[in-house]
DNA sequence: CGTGGCTCCTGTTAGC
DNA sequence: TGCTAACAGGAGCCAC
């Protein structure tokens, strides 16, 4: 479900409240994608220092160790002091003296992993090799992005989704940024003109930033940790609009399958 | 190494 | 209305 904007909106919705909190108890539900990596009781007594994000991972720094949280396809976090009883899809529940952090994840593609810190082998394995942070101007450099495109013959849509060049662009935003920059999703990355590559670079920055500003996209059930839904779907130009008229030229939006994922695009506006 | 296919799991929706 | 199949916002792993 969540792409970078939803993860960032989630982070902002509870980071300040949970900082300094002391962990009182941890309860696990059904198993998630990976085991927690330690007995839940081991977390008790630790203090939350800050909540960061790398790609679609939330990194919760503790005075001893680091919790990594991934929302997968259907995950969402809540942080509140008055949460209802655990539901069948609540699989991680961390009670603190400031409130309870709870992961709700019906499909269980998400993860909560306890590591010793950023240099923990498990953390390294998941974080090493991630691409540039699109909302970090000093990290997301045009020169590096352009060089990355030039170095790949992969179709641009799956390359964006892979996170190897730039992180956080998921299935919705991949379609949206390619439409905005008028690039065919099937175009080989190294065949994209410098002009279009520049538009793509700008679109990634602008569209993701706008989505964060708007509170993320809620297609089904996304909400941030304070329970607020997103509003960005009102802005979607192509995603989910198969057969409907293109907002730019009026021709029908087409649907394409790339690597088992749906891609929406305008065949008229997005050539090569 | 880069690339593509499969897989995990549950819920919702489209089609008959 | 009920059944079934397809599909859903991710990404690690394996085989080429």
From TrEMBL:
It catalyses: Hydrolysis of DNA containing ring-opened 7-methylguanine residues, releasing 2,6-diamino-4-hydroxy-5-(N-methyl)formamidopyrimidine; 2'-deoxyribonucleotide-(2'-deoxyribose 5'-phosphate)-2'-deoxyribonucleotide-DNA = a 3'-end 2'-deoxyribonucleotide-(2,3-dehydro-2,3-deoxyribose 5'-phosphate)-DNA + a 5'-end 5'-phospho-2'-deoxyribonucleoside-DNA + H(+). GO terms for molecular function: class I DNA-(apurinic or apyrimidinic site) endonuclease activity; oxidized purine nucleobase lesion DNA N-glycosylase activity. The active site is at 2 (schiff-base intermediate with dna), 3 (proton donor), 56 (proton donor), 261 (proton donor). DNA binds at residues 89, 107. The keyword Lyase applies. It comes from the Bacteria. Residues 2-110 form the Formamidopyrimidine-DNA glycosylase catalytic domain. InterPro entries: DNA_glyclase_Znf_dom_DNA_BS, FPG_cat, FPG_Glyclase, FPG_N, H2TH_FPG, Ribosomal_uS13-like_H2TH, Znf_DNA_glyclase/AP_lyase, Znf_FPG/IleRS. The keyword DNA-binding applies. SMART domains: Fapy_DNA_glyco, H2TH. Binds 1 zinc ion per subunit. Keywords: DNA damage, DNA repair, DNA-binding, Glycosidase, Hydrolase, Lyase, Metal-binding, Multifunctional enzyme, Zinc, Zinc-finger. CDD domains: EcFpg-like_N (cd08966). Its EC number is 3.2.2.23, 4.2.99.18. Its cofactor is Zn(2+). HAMAP family: Fapy_DNA_glycosyl (MF_00103). Involved in base excision repair of DNA damaged by oxidation or by mutagenic agents. Acts as DNA glycosylase that recognizes and removes damaged bases. Has a preference for oxidized purines, such as 7,8-dihydro-8-oxoguanine (8-oxoG). Has AP (apurinic/apyrimidinic) lyase activity and introduces nicks in the DNA strand. Cleaves the DNA backbone by beta-delta elimination to generate a single-strand break at the site of the removed base with both 3'- and 5'-phosphates. PANTHER family: FORMAMIDOPYRIMIDINE-DNA GLYCOSYLASE (PTHR22993:SF9). Monomer. Belongs to the FPG family. This is Formamidopyrimidine-DNA glycosylase. It comes from Comamonas avium.
